[in-house]
Structures are given as C-alpha cells and as structure tokens.
Amino acid sequence: KISNAMQRGAFIVFEGCDRSGKTTQSRLLVEKLQANGVSTVHLNFPERKSSQIGQVINSYLTNSQDLPDEVIHLMFSANRWEHLNRMRKQLEAGTTLVVDRYSYSGVAYTVAKGLDLNWCYAPERGLLKPDAVFYLKTELDELAKRGSYGTERYEKLEFQRKVSSVFDCLYERESSYWHRLNASDKVEDLHQQIAQISEKLLEQVATQPLDKLT
Ligand code: 2DT
C-alpha cells in the first residue's frame, strides 16, 4: 500500500418518510464529522435552487405546477444526474458527502403512486452508489403525533404509509449497506448510533473505488 495514496470521502445517505428526522440527524452528523476535522459537505435532493430542473421540481412540490407522474419522476432523477460530476469530484478529493434523500426517495415516492418499481429504478442506474444509507424507519402512527403535516404535495398520512412500505421493500433488497434505525429513538441516541457507524465507514471506504448503482 502506498502511504500517501489519495483517500476518498464517504458517500452517506439519509432516507425515510417526511418528518422522520433526516434533516436533524444529517445536520448532527455533519457537525460531528466537521468537529473531528473531516472535510464534509451536506447536500439534499431535490436540489431545488441551483438549476432550472430544481426550480420546476419546487413548483411541482408546492402545488403551483402539475406534471404527469412519469415526467416529474424523470426530473427528480435528472436533478441527481446534473449534480453527479461535482459529487464525484468532491468524493475523490477526500470530501465526505452527507446527503438528505437520494434515488431511494425517487423510487419510493413514485412507486407509492402506483408506477412500476423497475421502471422507477432504471434512470438511477449509473449514478454513484452510497457507501451507507441510514433509513430512519417511522411508525406512521407515531409520525401522525408529531403534529399536522405541511402543505406540500406528499405530506399526507395515507400517502406516507405507502411510501414507508416501499422503503421497507428497498431495505430488504439493499440491506448489505442499509442501516435501518428506529426514528422514535431519542435524537441523541440515534446520533450516537449513526456517528459510530459513520466513523468506521470513513476508514473502510477511504481506499475503495467508488461504486455505481446497478
Ligand atoms: P424534502 O421535503 O426532503 O425537500 O423532499 N421526492 C424526493 C421524490 O418524490 N423524488 C425524489 O427523487 C426525491 C429526492 C420526497 C421533497 C419531497 O420530494 C419527494 C419529498
């Protein structure tokens, strides 16, 4: 092993239903890694601001524009493709990426509308594969207690129930790199579990090549 070999960053994704705690936990992880001196960038999908595709997605989600299910699905995927090169460069330069939602949200939300899973997954093939996915699994009744949903398109309990069952299917399929965690655990307990797994992961993947979704 060459001692000064380039070490890449880790690609870490958070998935789960709306209000499962992804934003809180991904922020806490970013803060923790940065405090440890790890170069870390926080991203989230959809990335609504920096591109026209992102802006169309935003107007769709806020109900100011309607689009066929297939069209918005492909736009969510395109939004990941348009950020691929920058993400790859950052990872290769040694920066760890902590990402709030990715391809799995893409699949889960569209399958929940009744579209075919394989059709939904196809445009994700070739994107970077995460080193780890933290799936914050919520009991839907618990989620309902967190107060009423907002006004965005998907923020309805019945729909979230369907999304949740697709996430469970994906977890069964992808369990080699998914970590299913109980989203009703205390914030600090969850954070400890996530930080511990991530710190090990950073060492493990530093010299491994980046992989693609197949
Ligand atoms: P946020 O509330 O986290 O901004 O998500 N979504 C997300 C999809 O339908 N497809 C996707 O590919 C992604 C990344 C989940 C906004 C909503 O967009 C949904 C919730």
UniProtKB/TrEMBL annotation:
GO molecular function: ATP binding; dTMP kinase activity; dUMP kinase activity; nucleoside diphosphate kinase activity
Source taxon at top rank: Eukaryota
Swiss-Prot/TrEMBL GO biological process terms: dTDP biosynthetic process; dTTP biosynthetic process; dUDP biosynthetic process
The UniProt record lists the keyword Phosphoprotein: no
GO cellular component assignments: cytosol; mitochondrion; nucleus
Keyword Cytoplasm appears in the UniProt entry: no
Coiled coil: none
Pfam families: Thymidylate_kin
Enzyme Commission number(s) of this protein: 2.7.4.9
This protein's UniProt keywords: ATP-binding, Kinase, Nucleotide biosynthesis, Nucleotide-binding, Transferase
Pathway membership: Pyrimidine metabolism; dTTP biosynthesis
Domain Thymidylate kinase-like, first and last residues per copy: 14-194
NCBIfam families: DTMP_kinase (TIGR00041)
The family this protein is said to belong to: Belongs to the thymidylate kinase family.
UniProt protein name: Thymidylate kinase
Organism (species): Drosophila willistoni
